[in-house]
Design brief:
Jelly Rolls; P_dom; 4 helices; TRYPSIN_SER; six-stranded antiparallel beta barrel; 388 residues; mainly beta; single chain; 23 strands; Thrombin, subunit H
């Protein structure tokens, strides 16, 4: 994100020479002092689990973005130089670790840059069109009203852990608080030119948590009234990284929703509306090497059958993920295998599965079935959800 340095970096990488330096490269994170997990790179953040924010995209000029459609990435205007043909950007999707061999990459073909960017109207947003769709990609719907432009937001990115630091190989996440326009404008002379109708402020007034260089263009998001993620902001700028009394500034997505949707339609894609979410947040203990346990979700108000791309979001805390067998059980008792047991020693299963449930009636009680098939390790179902 942010500050004059960040803007200069992002604009500079629009230059061919710098794009070439970044294109296709995963930038290594510094090792931790004990040689274990790499140091997090969002200031005050923690490492995201694979699949936790599946619509996140890393762009090769050193910016972030989110999947708007299967072929369009929403990012910041200051990350690109102009509207027009552009084949120099590489988008990386589907991973937390940029060096993960399962990563999906696409080259760009075209960029649409907000025509009101750098005017009194504001509008730090842009759309990158990919050479071909990422079929089945998870999408992040955009906010179309200001109803969710308050509260606690989430941010994620591969940016720096400190002001002026290097960029990250791993996706980091953090929560930031809404900061009203008056408080933001009065926090530091830097914010005197804030555009209230076009920008949102968020962060921690005490400092310590923020987006930073390299997070530009990434989404700021929260749950809507149906429990689904919705994008309310785009990492834009700010005065340094995580300084006290210096919040981050984000593009107010709802202000530009109509323009973003029109640009997407012109480029050949219509943003997906928010899905209807049904979830169970009650913990269910998983016995060690014991019988299967179930967690229920009752679906109502959905006409006809479930979709062919039913999203099953799973958050299971367990000390040895390979012990677990996970199934989705439809209302009629049909079972869909989500995960087999394996030799994986990594903890927890936090991911989103896609199930072709088009033969199933949507309404009724769906069950998540989880069984620990090996001894010694334990855990519990923390939460799970269905998105229609």
């Amino acid at each position: 994100m942010r500050d004059t340095l960040r803007r200069t970096l992002a604009l500079g990488v629009g230059v061919v020479a710098v794009l070439a330096a970044f294109a296709g490269q995963a930038i290594a994170a510094p090792p931790s002092p004990d040689g274990g997990t790499p140091t997090p790179m969002v200031v005050g953040g923690t490492q995201a689990a694979k699949g936790e924010f599946p619509w996140m995209v890393r762009l090769s000029m050193g910016c972030g973005g989110a999947m708007l459609t299967e072929q369009l990435v929403l990012t910041a205007a200051h990350c690109v130089s102009r509207t027009g043909n552009n084949t120099s950007i590489t988008a990386t999707y589907g991973v937390v670790d940029l060096q993960d061999s399962t990563r999906i990459t696409r080259a760009s073909t075209y960029v649409h840059r907000s025509p009101t960017y750098d005017t009194a109207t504001g509008g730090d947003w842009a759309i990158v069109k990919l050479a071909s769709p990422i079929t089945g990609a998870a999408l992040l719907p955009i906010a179309t009203t200001a109803a969710h432009n308050t509260g606690v937001f989430s941010v994620a990115g591969w940016g720096a852990t400190r002001e002026g630091g290097g960029q990250s190989r791993y996706l980091l996440k953090a929560n930031v608080d809404y900061i009203d326009d008056t408080t933001c404008k009065n926090s530091d002379p830097y914010y005197a030119d804030l555009i209230p109708a076009a920008e949102l402020c968020a962060g921690k007034l005490a400092g310590g948590v923020d987006t930073c260089q390299g997070d530009s263009g990434g989404p700021m998001f929260r749950r809507d009234d149906n429990g689904a993620w919705v994008q309310v902001g785009i990492v834009s700028h700010g005065n340094g990284c995580a300084r006290p009394e210096n919040p981050g500034v984000y593009t107010e997505v709802s202000t530009f929703a109509a323009a973003i949707k029109q640009a997407a339609a012109d480029l050949g894609g219509t943003p997906q509306p928010p899905g209807k979410v049904f979830e169970n947040l009650n913990n269910v203990t998983i016995p060690d090497a014991g019988a299967a346990v179930y967690s229920n979700v009752t679906v109502t108000g959905i006409a006809g059958n479930a979709p062919s791309t039913l999203k099953v979001g799973v958050d299971i805390k367990h000390t040895y993920s390979g012990d677990l067998v996970i199934d989705l059980v439809a209302p009629d008792g049909s079972t869909y295998r989500l995960k087999n047991s394996s030799g994986s020693s990594t903890p927890n299963v936090v991911t989103t599965y896609t199930v072709n449930a088009s033969s199933e009636v949507a309404n009724g009680t769906w069950r998540l079935k989880v069984q620990d098939v090996y001894s010694q390790d334990t855990g519990y179902v923390d939460a799970w959800r269905l998105t229609f």
